Amino acid sequence: AQRVTQPEKLLSVFKGAPVELKCNYSYSGSPELFWYVQYSRQRLQLLLRHISRESIKGFTADLNKGETSFHLKKPFAQEEDSAMYYCALKFMEYGNKLVFGAGTILRVKS
Amino acid sequence: DTGVSQNPRHKITKRGQNVTFRCDPISEHNRLYWYRQTLGQGPEFLTYFQNEAQLEKSRLLSDRFSAERPKGSFSTLEIQRTEQGDSAMYLCASSLDLGWGYNEQFFGPGTRLTVL
């Protein structure tokens, strides 16, 4: 079955500390993965996609097919990074529908 | 056009009543998706449209649910005979499908449904 797992419901770090939000997936095809973010009182928005291999707001994510993981990392957390983060897997066979993980709340403390 | 809009933002209804939600996608976006999000979970796919054609429906979409996109622009999602288990946030997203690559889905603010 196709599934996205985010094992942590909450990750709390101090400002300036490194951040790693974990994401594992299960998919028989060639995966395309994304990280979406939802800041307080805002709508869900795309943060980054693995295929573009870019860094957005200091965040990066590398697709590891061997470990079926797509962890989101940032070397130095900032308070404005506090938000809900969702990992998502794209299904090309179904009109590019997205399968989301349950999400991880990131709290950056000052 | 400031993005995907959804109305109403909140809906409280009694069990057994029918409700209808509306989604206005970004102009010119040809794909429109509906997702449902319950507490503590990520969004779950319900259905999607390519222009006015409904091309895929999740098994989550029981026969009490119906969605339309009559002119390939706005879409409505109707739930008949609501049940308490229907209480959730209903999200709409739209994208411009160019026939290749991934085309970002832009999400609306959602409609929060509470069934009493």
Overview of the molecule:
The complex is a heterodimer of chains A (110) and B (116). With 110 residues, chain A is mainly beta. Chain A has strands at 3-5, 10-14, 19-21, 24-26, 33-38, 45-49, 60-61, 72-74, 83-91, 97-100, 104-109. Chain A contains no helices and eleven strands. In chain A, strands 2, 5, 6, 9, 10 and 11 form a six-stranded mixed beta sheet that branches. Chain A has a three-stranded antiparallel beta sheet with strand order 3-8-7, with no helix packed on it. Chain A is globular, with a radius of gyration of 13 Å. The mean pLDDT of chain A is 92. Helices cover 0% and strands 48% of the residues of chain B. In chain B, a hairpin with a 6-residue loop joins strand 4 and strand 5 (44-50). Chain B is globular and about 45 Å long. Chain B starts with a strand and ends with a strand. The mean pLDDT of chain B is 93. The chains are: A mainly beta (110), B mainly beta (116).
